[in-house]
User: What shape does this take?
Amino acid sequence: MTDSADDTRFVRAPRRDVDPWAGEKTRANFRDSLDAIDSFLAHASGGGRSAFVRNSPAYATGSMAIIRAAALFESEEFAPFLVDTSEDVARAIRTTRHIASHAGYRAMNDEVFWTTLTVHLPPLVAQWRRAADR
Assistant: This one.
């Protein structure tokens, strides 16, 4: 058993100098992430469903869109912009990211993936952008 002083070694220390622009930097970083996701979505869907096939650049770019969307939920600093996103939606995004990045395309349902990228994710990105603009 360790004493309580040892337990604080792993607690992040608060910043000594509070950056008055930290909130704006976070907002700018969040918007940059949304811009990247929008760009990936445009590329993935630009050629239509017939061009969105496994091992194509469009498919790989669609994977990057979902990976970047899931990454938003991994940063505590972005939490205020995601507060209106249900836990079910966040879990679905993380699960799709897991399949795209770890299980490989063979485990991906291509129709569900296409629908996620073209129907479900764009309104979420728009919602997150509105939250960042508030």
Q: What stands out?
A: Helices lie at 4-7, 22-46, 57-72, 79-82, 87-103, 110-133. DSSP finds six helices and no strands in the chain. The CA atoms of residues 98 and 104 lie 9 Å apart.
